[in-house]
Specification:
This protein has 138 residues and is of the alpha+beta class. The chain folds into two domains: 1-34; 41-137, Immunoglobulin-like. The chain has one helix and nine strands.
């Protein structure tokens, strides 16, 4: 009789644990389904349009990656207002001196820079938040 009671208590504890874990598992599964490499910058919609503009990964091309000497940056959909490159320690190593028109390619010489991951931030005309990408310098 006591063994049966003990089994029921253990079963009750397991059920309570499962009730607590199920919401956590559901959240973890939902988070696992999100893309890890997507980066988006969202601008406030204009008054004449209800749509929101987004800069997605495919809108800004950083190539080659990894880069040995020259990095190419291409933005076919937007005019680039500002382009900044930061080294692995967060120090600014490049700041574009002027805007770059839509579809133009800019080439930046990184041959004298040390190996590591570099962060590229691109501000596009009409978009508030910058696109952020990373390249590896060999």
């Amino acid at each position: 009789m006591q063994q049966k009671l003990r089994g029921e208590v253990l079963l009750s504890k397991r059920k309570n644990i499962m009730k607590r874990l199920i919401p956590i598992v559901v959240v973890l599964v939902a988070l696992a389904a999100l893309p890890l490499t997507s980066r988006y910058a969202v601008a406030a919609p204009r008054s004449d349009s209800a749509s929101v503009q987004i800069i997605a990964d495919e809108d800004v091309r950083l190539f080659p990656n990894p880069v040995e000497s020259e990095l190419n940056v291409l933005c076919e959909k937007y005019d680039i207002e500002r382009l900044m490159i930061f080294n692995p320690t967060g120090e600014l190593v490049f700041n574009s001196p002027m805007p770059i028109s839509q579809g133009s390619r800019i080439t930046i010489n990184l041959s004298s820079r040390p190996t590591g991951y570099y962060t590229i931030k691109v501000w596009a005309k009409g978009i508030k938040q910058p696109f952020t990408g990373r390249v590896f310098k060999i």
